[in-house]
Amino acid sequence: TDRRPMPLGPEGEGTLEGLLLHPELLREVDDWTRAAMGRSLRWEEVAQGRVRWHFSPVADRGHDVDLQDAGEGPLQVLPVLTALAMRHDCVPAPQRLLALEEPTTHLHEDLQVRLTDKLCSVAGEKDPPQLLVETHSRPVLLATQLALAEGRLAPDQVILYWVEQDDRGRSRTERVTFSADGHPESDRLIHEFQDEPRVARALATRWADAGTQ
Questions:
Q1: Entry pTM
Q2: Which of 40, 48, 76, 129 is the most exposed, having the fewest neighbouring CB atoms within 10 Å of its CB?
Q3: Which residue has the higher pLDDT, 186 or 38?
Q4: What's the start-to-end Cα distance of the chain, in Å?
Q5: What whole-number distance in Å separates Cα of residue 115 and Cα of residue 73?
Q6: Are 51 and 45 in contact (CB under 8 A)?
Q7: E-assigned strands of the chain?
Q8: Residues 171-190, buried b or exposed e (16+ Cβ, 10 A)?
Q9: Long-range residue pairs from 178-186, CB within 8 A, at least 24 positions apart, any chain
């Protein structure tokens, strides 16, 4: 990475440059990666004005891992974390909008929950930015519902728009709100996500049948 100012772009361009020039952003991002992934993001100077980034295990600082070898998950989540960390330096609250398209892609389901917890934490702050998250992730939905049930978010801070395409290719949007305990105030979600419990029941039945033989 060059030591030069570069704006954070829509595809994550400028992430490392921003973290390099703004240590307070790097601290917040590193706090999350340490807690969620057990990895620390750090840099070392390798040439004049250029640095090399490491994403090494916290438990073994002697084992260096180049950030480029850390996998797609870390490379994709770092711009998201950086954008969240930049929220304090943006325009006044009513005009702040952070739109994220599939921010959990390439992340393990446990990390999807961890990232959602971070989003909910930011949304629960005083004068937070508006967070618009487009996702197909079931863990994101469940973690958000849990944040409501635990009182970390209020019902008026969360709204879901379910987008569905019909047989003719036309999309329609259905608005879903939630109660204070995280229950959807619509029967829309009752009819979705049926494959996972169906497969789990089928597997449990197979195991039970095998145990009786």
A1: 0.88
A2: 48
A3: 38
A4: 62
A5: 12
A6: yes
A7: 39-47, 50-57, 97-101, 130-134, 160-165, 171-176
A8: eeeeebebeeebebeeeebe
A9: 178/145, 178/148, 179/148, 179/155, 180/148, 180/149, 180/151, 180/154, 180/155, 181/148, 181/149, 182/144, 182/145, 182/146, 182/147, 182/148, 182/149, 183/145, 184/145, 184/160
Q: Measuring CA to CA, which residue among 93, 74, 101 is closest to residue 19?
A: 74
Which amino acid, residue 157?
Answer: Q
pLDDT digits (tens, 9 = 90+) for 140-162: 999 999 999 999 999 999 999 99
CA 157 from chain centre, in angstroms, equals: 17
CA separation for the pair 159, 136 (Å, rounded): 15
Q: Are strands 50-57 and 97-101 parallel, antiparallel or unpaired?
A: unpaired
Report the distance separating Cα 103 and Cα 118, nearest Å. 12
Cα(46)–Cα(142) distance, integer angstroms: 43
What is the rounded distance in angstroms from the CA atom of residue 99 to the CA atom of residue 90? 14
Tokens of 162: 């379910």
Instruction: DSSP for 185-213, please give it.
Output: SSSTGGGS--HHHHHHHHHHHHHHHHHH-
